[in-house]
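Exam prep: given the inputs below (a chain plus DOR), describe the expected output before reading on.
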Amino acid sequence: MLPAVSMNSPTPSLIVVRSIQALDPSTSLDEEVDVVIEQGVITRLGRNAADQIAVADHGWELSGKGKRMFPGLIDMHVHFRDPGHEYKEDIASGLAAAAAGGFVHVCPMANTKPINDRANLTAYMKLKGKELSPVGLHPVGAITMGQQGQELTEMADIRDAGALAVSDDGVCVRSSAVMRKALEYARTCDLLVIQHAEDHDLTVGAQMHEGAISTRLGLKGWPRAAEEIIVARDLILAELTGARYHLAHVSSAGSVRLLRDAKDRGIAVSAEVTPHHLLLTDSRVLGYDTACKVNPPLREEQDRQALWEALLDGTIDVIATDHAPHSTIEKDCEFSEASPGLIGLELCMALLFQQASEGRIRWSRLVESLSQGPADLLKLPRPQLKVGQPANFAIFDEGMEWKVERSELASKSWNTPFLGQTMRGRVVLTMAQGKVAFCHRDFDPARE
Ligand code: DOR
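Solution:
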């Protein structure tokens, strides 16, 4: 069987896409257009813009029928296990998964082994990424040395090596004094501070959300309060320091309330939500499926509804996958022994497309929260569908059906509760920085 993906195909000097529904919220574009890409740059875009263009043998001519084009996506929260646990994911497979999901920039978290708490590690990840793929890789440096919560990292050096943000994600910065200093230091470096909000004293031994289901299953619970206590404290510290504070993977309705209040008061805070917290609840843990073990845990329906509301009204700024690959060693075991986390890069768009097609979210808000939103928070240039811009886009085939299977994934891991499920809609082409980063095997541009 052919591989599901074909990475880094040579980029033709001319690509003509005819009659595609193109959407770019940053330029209010939402119409059927032709798009012409020459030498990796968008040179024409508009109704019938490609009428006069003939494509010679060396070029690609694509029909946009049944497809959508949108600006390349940005995932500001992924875990590539490189260095240290490359059997779960390395930078090559992580970037391949990103490209297959329509992403043109990703930010791998610092909980590698060793921890990315110094410039040479940041530089290693960045360099390796550059060698392997046109998808931009921006490592997130640790906030504290070894993610131990005590001594701050040299954030200025880490920034100079290529980081746009710092985070101890996986663990919370527990000390208020350390968090205050971290915010002050990050502010002088113009780095975004991403917090994993968890009061670890309240989650010792926790396996899932604390509620009726954890009681029924006899599993120790992770109460909402453990997140909300840290969020409340951090919002106070963000106001005090004026730093750019970002809350990772918000999971509870109470955190949403706190965020909304802080934003109403003009505090510079932002937040992300994951597709799994938008789509699943703790009831999925009833079968002890370790693929549903994640940190923070899947919560209850009222939390899920609050997360949707917050995403739609802008209280939550962006969607991030928290792509957390684990192998069968960490997942094919008792629930209490399993590592938390699930993969997200290759499923994100297909899962959320379904929500958009059911009217749960407008396409424009979906794309904004996955592209322009994270670009603005990270201070990256927005990927745009605009003449003169390098090609940074994804083409999504709305009708393509596919089954979530190991052989269909570019990621080295397949820890997802959606394994075995049939999806409708798939990214078939991703161009990043003017180059073809991913082309699905069934999407043969020469035949289109
Ligand atoms: O579920 C999670 N997995 N949450 C985290 O914060 C870390 C991540 C991981 O690294 O596996």
